[in-house]
Amino acid sequence: MSFYTALTGLNGAQSDISATSNNIANVNTTGFKRSRAEFGDIFATSPLQNASSSIGSGTILKSVKQQFTQGNITSSLNVLDIAISGQGFFSLKPSLTSGQTVYTRNGSFNVNNDRYVTDSSGQFLLTFPVNADGSVTAKDLTSAVPLQLPVTSGTPKATTQIDLGVNVSATSDVITDNEQFASGYVFNPNDPTTYNNSTSITIFDDLGNPTIATIFFIRTQAASAADPTNKFETRLVINDTVIEPDLVKAVNDTKQPIFIDRFGQQTTKVPDDNYFLEGKGSPLFKQDDLQTLVDSTPAKVTGESSGFDFGEEGDKTVTIVTDPVQFKSTVESGNTGSGIFWGTNFMTVNVDNGDQPVNIDIRPGSYNAAQLSTEIQRAINAAYGDDKKIQVVQNVDDTLTIDLLKLNADGTSTGLTTPISVDLLTDSYVSTLEGITLTGASPDFTRDQFLAHTQARLNDALNNYAVTASTDVVSNAASIGVQNSLFAEYTGGTMTGILEHNQAFKITRANATTNDAGTITAITDEEKFLTHSYFGKSPQLHVYDEADTMGAGNDGNIVEYDQSENTVKFYFGASDPGLTVNEKIRALGLFDASATDTTNSNFFNGREFTVIRAAQDSGNKYFVECSTSGMNFPDADFNIAATNNDGKIYSELSTSVEAFFQGANNVFKGADVNFSNKKVVLREIGTANKHSYTNKMVDDSTVARAHGSVSVGDPIFGIHSAEFDINGSAASVNTSQVLGLGSDAASLDSTITGASNMATNWVDVQDPPIEVSYDVLNQRLQFEIDRNILGTGTNSNFNSFKIFGASTATSTNNLGIPTSDDTTETLIRGGEKFSAATFVADGAEIQLNDKRFGIKVGYNSELKAFEFSSGTTGETIAANGAIGVTTAQTASDIAVGRYLLSTTDGSITDATDFFGGDNGLLGVGITKTNAIKTEAKGLAALPAVAVGASATEDLTQVFRLSNQNNENIFNVSVNGVPGIIEIPQGFYVGTTLAEALQERMNQIEGTTGIVGGGITVSYNSDTNNFTFTNGTTGRDSTIKVRGAGKFGLDNVDLGVGTVPQIFNLTQATNSEGLALFVDANGNKVTTPPANVVDGYFPLFIDEGELTFDKSGRIVSPKQGVHYEKQEAGFSIDLDIDFTKSTQLAQPFSVNTVNQDGFTSGRLDGLEIDSSGTVRANYTNGQNNPLGKIVLANFNNQNGLKQIGNSTYVETAVSGTATVGEAGAEGFGTVLSGSLERSNVDITEELVNLITAQRNFQANAKSIETTAATTQAIVNIRM
Hints:
Layout: H1 2-25, E1 35-42, E2 58-66, E3 73-75, E4 82-85, E5 89-93, E6 102-104, E7 110-111, E8 117-118, E9 124-128, E10 145-146, E11 161-167, E12 197-204, E13 210-221, E14 230-238, E15 241-243, E16 248-249, E17 259-261, E18 266-267, E19 282-283, E20 285-286, E21 293-295, E22 300-302, E23 318-321, E24 340-342, E25 347-351, E26 358-360, E27 365-367, H2 369-383, E28 390-391, E29 399-407, E30 413-414, E31 420-423, H3 429-434, E32 444-445, H4 447-466, E33 467-468, E34 473-474, E35 487-491, E36 503-514, E37 520-533, E38 540-549, E39 557-562, E40 567-573, E41 584-591, H5 595-601, E42 608-616, E43 622-627, E44 638-641, E45 645-653, E46 657-661, E47 680-684, H6 695-700, E48 717-722, H7 735-738, E49 758-761, E50 770-775, E51 780-785, H8 787-790, E52 800-805, E53 826-827, E54 833-835, E55 856-860, E56 865-869, E57 894-897, E58 918-919, E59 924-925, E60 932-934, E61 943-947, E62 959-961, E63 969-974, E64 977-982, E65 986-988, H9 990-1001, E66 1016-1020, E67 1025-1033, E68 1038-1042, E69 1055-1056, E70 1061-1063, E71 1077-1078, ...
Parallel strand pairs: 11-77, 20-73, 23-24
Antiparallel strand pairs: 1-2, 3-87, 4-86, 5-6, 5-9, 5-82, 6-84, 7-8, 9-10, 9-81, 11-78, 12-13, 13-14, 14-15, 14-74, 16-73, 17-18, 17-73, 19-71, 21-70, 22-56, 22-60, 23-27, 25-26, 25-57, 28-32, 29-30, 29-31, 29-52, 33-34, 35-47, 35-49, 36-37, 36-48, 37-38, 38-45, 39-40, 39-44, 40-43, 41-42, ...
Helix pairs in contact: 1-10
């Protein structure tokens, strides 16, 4: 057996030598993988044999295994020499029709006669099919195809795309600003002064013919504050022809087309997706024309030039009157030259198409243009506001009590034994005039009505406290220290009309003397003169001590006017009037001898003059001369003859008696309104003329009266005969009755005396001792006592006062007046005021019309016209008719005019015709056809909104609001008008506190009458915070709130309204000024397309223009610019992409330039990248992907079957091939121009060979030994 054992070793050694020899033989074979012989021992035993003592039977060759390690990679100059660095095998087809696939690491490929890529055995290299960009379309062996190299790149391709990236210098000149183009820019490709830079590129036509395209760059705009962009125009020139670009749509960064709405707001979507899919055209709008944003505007009315000359600066003042006594002086009455205008029924206005226009009254006064605008604006906003009237609740608010206190020696104060009670539900001249019913009611007053009524009731109560009005008997005068401060006051009856004449009445005033007991011991009746001046048709009352009758001068005239000297002389005949220089005089009379005399007398009759000379004429007739400078006397001399004319000069304005129209002024402190009831008041004035006796005491006195017109038993005042017999003249007017001084029709200018309208008072209604006012900042009533009348150091000597309301109220009544238990004592030192608590006017709304806020009125000094603007902006827009308009928007609108007024009294003649008259002062009305209405434009302005932070406690739960740390005080500013809001203490939740804040914030009013309104305050339970929204809109709308931190109001940002800005769309025009459109095919046309879009429009940029921002980044175009032209010699249809261009402070340069056209080309080379993509290069510059080399791998490479030439086939042991791309997971990369050498290590193989040889020799020796041993045994046996 040993022989056979040795023989197996000999055979094994032979196999090992064979494997090693094969490795050595293929050391230079590309892609060869060395093999290794693997052996196993032979061992056989029987079941009965002891294995531990058994000997093996030799060795056996088990297998020869390939070693698939990476071979060395060497470089090659052949692009088709391909090596795999890493895992994987090339996939090959033995033939084009074979269904078998073989695999190899031998990447030595070449091209056969049919342009296929094959290995040395003619097997075809497989590739995956690819797209034009080299991406694989299918990754499986079934789709893999043999790689074939096309000889040519195909038919010629015309250039359709040029990618041109240039840098245009930021320092280049603006060519179009050059002097040579002052009359217009003209481009000339042959004149380098007409452009900045140019660059050329070769392009191809459809036949592959090359031609030169030159692009010129012309800088047209440098960045500025108005437009921070830089612009370059481009010109494409081919064959000396300038190719005009097509329209270029504006797109965003994602290349979506941009559309604009009617206001130039940009969007990439329109409400209807089919909007631009219906074959519609559009007006042509360009992005460069959307440069200047303008505010949305309100509707505006600009009147004609004002009927009053306010001067160049608008600083001359116009007089507005509302006193019915003064109506005849106004322009509205027909007194066109007076410059005085009627403030009642001043204008009508309808804002934003309200249900009904609103009638506006303005306050009387003198205004320049700006002041009048402010007053009209205030009045309109007040009329459209949400203010409410003040309600005086019966048995709660109707009683007001005043207690005056004196300081005792011990520092305590003692009040009146019986405090002064004021009944607010007793009539006053104000309530009577305004028709307010007080009996059995809880009436409503406007604030002005309430203050005037309350002041009148205060005055009446104070007078009645001292002297009982019903009996004219002194009662408590001494207790308030006014027993010696009494005076007589006469109030006439209601005037029957306006006395349109100058008149005077002789009156008497009784000056009585009393003894220590207060009994009248003597009466002196002083004669005075009550004058009614009607100069300028403006009634005025005065009382004079002296009257001098005019008499003929030497020339028989009583009045002479010298226009050259600007003087007028009044003659007195032989009587010396005793007048002196600088003395004030008033001329009155009846000058009706002729129409001329009447006309000329209108320049002086009823007018006041200053004496500049008192002298006698040549006939020793006395006269006074007065200056007429600045008094608008005529340009011609005139004289008034003494014959049939009657005139007097009144002088020495009385210091003891005055006259005025009741309610015409000073109706309450700071009043800028009047409640004139057309009654004449005559009263004593002056401290020296005050007394302790009453009118009744004089009337009852039996003391003889020396004056001829006065009898025993007559009152203090006697009103006697009229000075001028107007009733007996052609005018035939009972002047005393018209003025309310007569008692019946029989008393025509005759003596009028009687006590029915006489009263004894101590309160000066023009300067009352106790004044009521309204504190607009804190929204409360205030009362102030004049210390010079009732304070310490006076006869009254009061140190302080208290004011309180009815005890039926709680701590305060509805007017904020506290009860006697809750009131405070206020000192009388000068300026101290008693302030009631904040109160809310909770009566009826003053105006029951639509609410409008923020109306504006201004004066245009250039046009000398007033302008009226609605408080809102924006035009009518349907829902989704513009960006951001989700619901329909109504138009801002305003209409301004006036009722037609009666020229008799200024009343409305037809209450149904709101715009039937004119307002000449404002230049608006039915005949003011040159007034201009400007329609609103744009979007609605937004109000100011202030949002508080979340409250620190849950306000959905009931909480108590107290005055601790002033948590019930809120500081508010609305449109710059401050207000201090005091919320009554009590229990609230968030919603009720919001309501309380809202009603008080809407009462905010400035000291000049600027009103708030329309403010809403809401509480959000989800976020536990308050939101304050102003009623006005726009940038002038502001709101600021500061309150306690617990409510989240300690640091609320100022809310400011906004005015949406829009573009005024300008349709593009051609060089002839014709409007341009875009038809349904995208072509520019001048004829409007039949079907045009509305509301939203496509946006375009200037064709061929490059726009850069300040950083040099291109802004537009963001896509290619299309050029197309067909003419003899060439055909062009291409896009130029400038998006890679820049504008930096560097010289002009071309950074990138590519074009996609080419002529027919031949294969010029191959490229194979690391991913295995094979690309062919052609002589026309084309570079086309041909395929991607298929790589395969196996789960068990050692299971592959070698079939020669380093080629393998798969077996069941190797598993199915997994195919993929080079560089993917599980596959190595491809190296073109490289080959993988065999992985045989020659040194190692030689060592292995020596080892195998020795093994062979040893086994041979074993055989030799066995043979020798066997022979020896045989010999022994033999």
